[in-house]
Amino acid sequence: MDKKVRYGIIGIGKMGHTHAVKLLKGLDKNGTLTAVCDIDPARIMWAKERLPGVKIFEDYKELLACAEVDAAVVATPHYLHPGIAKKALCAGKHVLIEKPAGVYTKAVRELNEVAAAHPEQIFGIMYNQRTNPLYRQAKEWIDGGALGEIKRINWIITNWYRPQAYYDQGGWRGTWEGEGGGVLINQCPHQIDLFQWLGGMPTTVRGYAKTAVKRNISVENDVTFYTEYANGASGVFVTSTHDFPGTNRLEISGDGGRIVIEQNLLSEKLTFNKLKIFESEFNKDNKKFMPLISQRKIRLRSTMLQNAVRLGIVGQHMNIFRNFSRAVLFGEPLIAPGADGIRGLTLSNAVHLSSWLGEAVTLPLDEELYIEELNKRVEEERNSSLDKK
Prior knowledge:
Strand content: 15-25%
CATH class of the largest domain: Alpha Beta
Number of strands: 15
Structural class: alpha/beta
CATH topology of the largest domain: Dihydrodipicolinate Reductase, domain 2
Number of helices: 13
Oligomer: single chain
């Protein structure tokens, strides 16, 4: 292998072409773009005009056979992620897949099994929000025990505003057949991943996923779900694509205090109300009727300039590429291992299934039942489209 990881991108639509341009600009000093692939003639033409010196393929299998590609980036529609990633691993390539890892957990579980059979190859997922310094600091405090046992995790993430014009861009958007879901599978995979990355996987999920709220679509765009955990903790997650202005506030309460992360477009802050003694210890000896527990407040904030660099000029996605390249070349641990993709997807699948059945769902998920219920909605969607013709 050369000193740089040679990337081939499969799918150069919205995210794929962004990755291609940034790799070609050299924003990852340990990586370079050598090939791209797409089936859309317009995108092929774009690649020929904008990606000088890069090999261009119309069949991803040809890209996977290319000796000048060390790592395949899978940036195709959601349903195709697991199948292409499996073929890439079997072709001897390192693999970095876009989120979500797939539409349903059975396919992703099979992908993880193939990846486990090829331990010599690096397998990662584009969970770029894990590079955010505020979430990473929260993770460090939680894993290090500073927050103590988690009692509650709540996230309101309703700043995904999408007008009807967004859904009207292409026939696959806002459909069960094209995307496999709405806000849970398209906009929120990053936050659902962080929800479990920070708070752990629940034992029970009760979901309420409302379909086509104020929009002409067939998938969910207004969701609330409730989670319960083995230690008795609970969680609530609220998201939508029709609220404006929206909110992005994560709150995690534990025996040692409370962490709050709030975000706006170019502003974000973290506040840790750190108790000087864990609440459980304080409660043992306290005799006061309505006491206050001593605490100190730790505040962290990202500046507008820092956010502009992280989100735009360089971008969080490039931080994942840089980490992935170092993992391939130098053995650096991955920020987002590909095998982790099944966890957030398990949550979103559980929310869908719970809402469809009208009852709580216990994990592990009934994968066959989920596929059966998903296929019902795909079929209903097809019939509805035929009726409109």
